[in-house]
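Work Package 4 report. The design task specified in the project plan requires that, given a folded chain encoded as structure tokens, an amino acid be chosen for each position. We show below one input record used in the internal validation round.
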């Protein structure tokens, strides 16, 4: 990263996404942000050379030092992802355990260090309709991509229902190209250079990959825009397909049936608003998110989070709930500590 004469100040280290991973609000035109967190005072943090950041007032000292870097992808790759490129590293001795709820995103992880968690060194996952407990133990250094399902369909070049609820070696998805990408990223020093390698690779995949059916892309966009409240009958009518044909093609290119995806979109939107809810406001929030009533919402909590709304809210780290309700563009997880 180039060193500037007057490094910009850090605005705020708040936005707890996990107790051990803090997310910093950055300006939208920032090309790369590199940050270290740990047992540092605000003064120490402001000595860090970081790209385009505003004055730390608060900093957590209860977490090990972690780093992450971000860079904006080139067009048209950017439209296929749900966030910027993210590089993440945590030191040895770190151990975290998280409840992960379903989200309308696919994931690609490429470790630039060793593999972790018993997973392949590089892997892809599709959508899932179940919650899971994720464990991160020991040293980790990786590139973490979050893709829209249709973006994953294009960039990975496989039917997305083949990845549903699975963790698949990237070499099995991309063939030799997956192995070459993994080795090249691991042998490239520095996040900026790694992101350049990744961007070049994904630009080529975007040009060569399959294009989703126009009708499926329309149905996906409508579900997201409506926060999952449109009926499948309405979608089928809008695209001019039978309900059965829409479900078949949508599942193939997105990974799950449209009705299930609608529920996940709605539930994910609900979790991003829990910070403004409070226990007394669950009925109102449920209605605003498209649930018939609080009982309807409670059923989705049991299925997608394995717990109740009140228990979920109680697990959130301090200040995380309120930040989940705000627009956070760097790290987008709605995970909470596993019980």
């Amino acid at each position: 990263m180039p060193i500037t004469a007057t490094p910009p100040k850090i605005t705020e280290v708040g936005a707890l996404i996990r107790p051990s991973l803090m997310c910093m609000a950055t300006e939208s035109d920032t090309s790369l942000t590199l940050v270290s967190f740990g047992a540092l005072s605000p003064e120490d943090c402001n000595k860090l050379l970081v790209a385009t950041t505003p004055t730390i007032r608060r900093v957590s000292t209860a977490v090990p030092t972690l780093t992450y870097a971000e860079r904006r992808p080139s067009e048209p790759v950017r439209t296929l992802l749900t966030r910027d490129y993210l590089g993440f590293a945590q030191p040895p001795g770190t151990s975290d355990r998280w409840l992960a709820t379903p989200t309308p995103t696919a994931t690609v992880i490429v470790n630039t260090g060793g593999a972790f968690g018993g997973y392949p060194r590089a892997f892809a996952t599709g959508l899932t309709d179940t919650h899971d407990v994720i464990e991160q133990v020991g040293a980790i250094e990786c590139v973490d991509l979050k893709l829209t399902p249709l973006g994953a369909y294009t960039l990975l070049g496989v039917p997305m229902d083949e990845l549903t609820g699975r963790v698949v070696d990237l070499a099995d998805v991309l063939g030799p190209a997956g192995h070459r990408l993994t080795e090249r990223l691991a042998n490239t020093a520095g996040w900026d250079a790694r992101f350049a390698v990744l961007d070049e690779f994904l630009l080529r995949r975007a040009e060569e990959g399959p294009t989703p059916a126009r009708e499926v892309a329309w149905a996906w966009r409508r579900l997201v825009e409506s926060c999952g409240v449109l009926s499948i009958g309405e979608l089928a009518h809008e695209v001019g397909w039978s309900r059965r044909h829409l479900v078949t093609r949508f599942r193939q290119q997105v990974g799950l049936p449209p009705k299930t995806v609608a529920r996940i979109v709605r539930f994910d939107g609900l979790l991003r608003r829990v910070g403004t809810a409070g226990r007394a406001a669950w009925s109102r929030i449920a209605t605003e998110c498209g649930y018939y009533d609080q009982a309807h919402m409670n059923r989705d909590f049991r299925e997608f989070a394995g717990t109740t709304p009140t228990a979920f809210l109680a697990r959130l780290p301090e200040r995380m709930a309120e930040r989940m309700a705000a627009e956070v563009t760097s790290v987008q997880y709605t995970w909470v500590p596993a019980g």
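The mean pLDDT is 78. Validation will be extended to a larger panel in the next phase.
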